[in-house]
Design goal:
The chain is built from 23 helices and 30 strands. The chain is α+β, with helices and mostly antiparallel strands. It has five domains: 26 residues, no CATH class; 232 residues, Rossmann fold (3-Layer(aba) Sandwich), CATH 3.40.50.620; 200 residues, Valyl/Leucyl/Isoleucyl-tRNA synthetase, editing domain (Isoleucyl-tRNA Synthetase, domain 2); 165 residues, Isoleucyl-tRNA Synthetase, Domain 1, CATH 1.10.730.10; 63 residues, Ubiquitin-like (UB roll) (Roll), CATH 3.10.20. α16 crosses α19 and α17 packs across α20. The longest helix has 22 residues. The radius of gyration is 35 Å and the shape is globular. It binds zinc ion (2 copies).
Length: 742
């Protein structure tokens, strides 16, 4: 859509064109996709099921609307999810993100916060990615405690006429008796309720000031603390003390309750704030009896002081004692808190799935009936953003009838975050043409969960978390019967420009696949991609590496040509001399290594093993009585091992040169003979007084006496000994002979 705004080309046109181009490139490279199962998330056949999913989540209470402060990108003119704000900036355009209150749709991912954590250890995912998710979910165990409020000399009541409770989450309930003020987030509704008329002007000014700061800035520990008094007081439930309620932007409405209790004696940030504004500082924890630790004292060990009935209690035990007391008063309880927020999915954008909800003046929010899906995204819409949803300006889209009362109503003008598309697409691939259901349960059951998922690490806290959440929600709806969508995950590395920097047009270091494919063919290009980089690490592009592959594939073709006229030998009938055994060892070692390495995404070492094999074949061909049938046999296996990397060339050799049946891809993957990997002879090092003197071949099963005989019989040994006497001879089986000489 940003591209569309820039160029004026309709997003649908450019998207479909891009899909066609990329599909062509992938086909040219021989990528093995079954194109019958292709899907495009921007087509109604797909997004109809986004809408269906939305309705199901709504039924389950997992989709809801609320007025909330949201991240707003002033340049993109749209709301952003927390995950799309990077260092306080818009992930797409790098503009400074600001806060704005809007009514938005949310998916209740927090409902699954604990399960999303609990399932992580069992996933075969990179540890770093699991850690990112763990931190993002941010579980902390603590307590929720409450204060009542005095404003203008009276106890403040809630809408039901009960005492208004100011709820606070804390991990340090032991310091509760040291609370000297309370802070409320400036953007929260509570701040408006608490502020007295006398203080309103100052608070309003302050709100304007803080709306410009990003969450990251606000939470920064080095940022100068700012704030103003709201005019209201919190009443401490245990000692009855009246403490002032301030507003400061280091408290964020979206985190926890948007209110914090301040204990300046035992918290760096509170201490700084209290010192600046002249607020009370009361010590309630000491490292030991009678010790006056320097304040703020933030160590998590010690005993309570100045805490009335809790004096002398060890601080961890004090948490239980204090929260226990508060619980009897209905003013506190133990609580687990999560940093994870619900997933904001409304976008004031054109290019997305229309939200299947109708707003009726009489009936309120009414879901579009399932039978009316899909709600089609109209084509002719002015999509240049001006802060309002583009669809809101399209009358033919907006005006509709209320499904409940039949009266005039309006559609929801927003579209869904495009991450909704990818939150469940893995299941749709299995059954992409289904018109009657989101997917067939049995088909998904047969093929899912995805056993190997490849994607970038930048998705750690977004797509990969959303998809896990949606899978769990679908499981609870009975759509699938497993817990996790992707059992095993691999992050691909990034191929850099030849200069070692990220490829970019402005740096002029881009490498265009098409040119290389045209010049060298896609087999060379693919094999180089496999050989030139550790798959998960990537690295700089190298034309030299590509040349090495050109040389290698050239040798393979030449060898295939040479052996094309010779039938392959019957390996079981081949009489194996030393040379044959050596080559057979390399052959089987290669099969074993490639089989294991490919499984572990170690494609570069797989190619390296095949290069060693072709060297060994070449060496064998030089020997006097080389068996041509055996060379052909080894070459066929090499061709089979190479086929996933260089499919076109190997298919041609297999059928045309070797006259085998079509296709090489219908053949069994070569298996290796474990007994060929047991060497008759092994090379060991001979050490004299701890220094390697020379290397010698000995029978693999030789014992100490036999090895001692062989070593002593070698003329190099006598020379190395230089007249000294052997004190000790130790043979470490299969590795070395250690000789102590004097
Ligand atoms: Zn932006
Ligand atoms: Zn209605």
């Amino acid at each position: 859509e940003n591209y569309a705004i820039k160029t004026g080309i309709h997003p649908k046109d450019s998207t479909l064109k891009n899909i066609a181009t990329m599909e062509k490139q992938l086909r040219e490279m021989g990528a093995s996709f079954d194109w019958d199962y292709e899907l495009a998330t921007c087509m109604p056949e797909y997004y109809k099921w986004n809408q269906w999913l939305f309705l199901k989540l709504y039924e389950k209470g997992l989709a809801y609307r609320k007025n909330a402060p949201v991240n707003w990108c002033p340049k993109c003119n749209t709301v952003l999810a927390n995950e799309q704000v990077v260092d306080g900036k818009c992930e797409r355009c790098d503009s400074e993100v600001i806060k704005k209150n809007m009514t938005q749709w949310f998916f209740k991912i927090t409902e699954y916060a604990q399960e999303l954590l609990d399932c992580l250890p069992d996933l075969d995912w990179p540890e770093k990615t699991k850690k990112i998710q763990t931190n993002w979910i941010g579980r902390s165990e603590g307590s929720q405690v409450a204060f009542t409020v005095e404003k203008d000399g009276e106890i403040l009541k809630d809408e039901n006429g009960n005492d208004l409770k100011l709820e606070v989450f804390t991990t340090r309930a032991d310091t509760f008796m040291g609370v000297t003020y309370v802070v409320v987030a400036p953007e929260s509704e509570l701040c408006n309720i608490l502020t007295t008329d006398e203080c309103r002007a100052a608070v309003e000014d302050y709100k304007v000031f803080t709306s410009k700061a990003s969450d990251i800035d606000r939470m920064s520990t080095t940022r100068e603390k700012t704030g103003v008094f709201t005019g209201a007081y919190a009443i401490h439930p245990l000692n009855g003390r009246k403490v002032p309620i301030w507003t400061s932007d280091y408290v964020i409405a979206a985190y926890g309750t948007g209110v914090v209790m301040a204990v300046p004696a035992h918290d760096e940030r509170d201490f700084e704030f209290a010192t600046k504004f002249g607020l009370d500082i009361i010590r309630v924890v000491q490292s030991a009896e009678g010790v006056e630790d320097e304040l703020p004292y933030c160590d998590k060990k010690g005993i309570l002081v100045n805490s009335g009935e809790f004096d002398g209690i060890e601080m961890h035990a004090a948490i239980d004692a204090i929260v226990g007391k508060l619980a009897t008063m209905g003013m506190g309880e133990k609580k687990v808190n999560y940093r994870l927020r619900d997933w904001l999915i409304s976008r004031q954008r054109y290019w997305g799935t229309p939200i299947p909800m109708i707003h009726c003046e009489k009936c309120g929010v009414v879901p579009v009936p399932e039978s009316d899906l899909p709600v089609l995204l109209p084509y002719d819409v002015e999509f240049t953003p001006d802060g309002e949803s583009p669809l809101a300006k399209c009358d033919s889209f907006m005006n509709c009838k209320c499904p409940k009362c039949g009266g005039d109503a309006k559609r929801d003008p927003d579209t869904m975050d495009t991450f909704v598309d990818s939150s469940w697409y893995e299941f749709r691939y299995v059954d992409n043409k289904n018109d009657n259901a989101i997917f067939d349960k049995d088909k998904v059951k047969a093929l899912c969960p995805v056993d190997k998922y490849v994607g970038g690490p930048e998705h750690a806290a977004m797509h990969l978390l959303y998809a896990r959440f949606i899978a769990k929600a679908m499981r609870d709806m009975g759509l699938i019967d497993f817990d996790e969508p992707f059992t095993s995950l691999v992050h691909q590395g990034i191929i850099l420009g030849p200069d070692g920097n990220r490829m970019s047009k402005s740096r002029g270091n881009t490498v265009a696949p098409d040119e290389y494919v045209a010049k060298y063919g896609s087999d060379v290009f693919r094999t180089y991609l496999a050989f030139g980089f550790a798959y998960t690490e990537g690295g700089p592009w190298s034309d030299k590496g590509l040349q090495a592959i050109t040389k290698f594939t050239g040798r393979v073709e030449k060898l295939a040509e040479e052996v094309s006229g010779t039938p392959k030998c019957d390996i079981s009938a081949l009489s194996m001399g030393k040379e044959e055994k050596d080559l057979n060892y390399v052959l089987n070692y290669t099969i074993k290594s490639v089989t294991n390495d490919v499984d572990r995404f170690q494609f570069n070492t797989s190619i390296a093993r095949m290069m060693e094999l072709i060297n060994a074949i070449g060496k064998y061909q030089q020997t006097a009585n080389a068996d041509k049938g055996f060379v052909r046999y080894c070459t066929e296996i090499l061709i089979l091992l190479l086929s996933p990397f260089a499919p076109h060339m190997t298919e041609e050799i297999w059928c045309e040169k070797f006259g085998n049946d079509y296709s090489i891809f219908n053949q069994k993957w070569p298996s290796f003979d474990e007994s060929a990997l047991v060497k008759d002879e092994i090379e060991i090092a001979v050490q004299i007084n701890g220094k390697v003197s020379f290397k010698i071949d000995v029978p693999a099963d030789a014992d100490q006496a036999a090895v001692e005989g062989l070593v002593k019989g070698d003329e190099r040994f006598e020379k190395a000994l230089a007249g000294r006497n052997i004190v000790k001879f130790i043979y470490v089986k299969g590795r070395l002979a250690n000789v102590v000489a004097k």
